[in-house]
Amino acid sequence: MNVHELDRQYRTHEGCVPPWAVALLVEYGHLDEFRHRAERGDWFCAHHLAKELAEQGKRDAALSVLAPFTDSGWWQAVKTTAGFLDRWGRTDDAITLVRPLAEAGDRLALEHLARLQAHMGRTDEVIALLGPGTEDWFLAKALVELTESCGREAEVADLLPLGLPAGNLTCSFAAPEGPLSYEPPACRQLGQAPSPWCSARQQRNSRTPLANRSGSVSWTVHPIGAGGGCDWAV
What is the mean pLDDT of residues 146-155? Predict the structure, then answer.
């Protein structure tokens, strides 16, 4: 399996049977062609076939279909296989499968491994895994999300970098001058009280405020869902 070619096909739907065409092959009974293409390395056909086999209770057969893709180390296949294992109650096997890519520094694998660990209630492992990488907003966001309501807000807040970039998923609000003994303006705007970790971050900033040239302090927050809220404050 050529990982780069698989990735190109996955992104462009070129040189393969695209997902919508796979559904038509199955719907109109072209099952032999569908299976033949899956065996020849067409990811979308293989993925669909694996799902059908899994739904029929043929779990080993489903994993066998995915195995050539997974063995190549291609992330989409590893993630898909790990998802099957996790749903079947084999989360430790899923962790074992994902860990090599995570240890190699793949940020998607790191985030997914943390989710699997969180699913098993291994908060210490989640913090140990994601804590060193919080300069990456993607991993910082995952750390905050996966440790929410675990009673570790202050510890997690201390791991977040003070200069965390806003990226595409955050919104910045300027706070007025003075002490930071108030709720972040984003929480007020969204009509929701700040969460405990947000308060912990607020307290940390009150000790080491970040002032720009105008003397004001900037908060960076991420709204959660339709109901509002914030993911972190800087």
Answer: 87
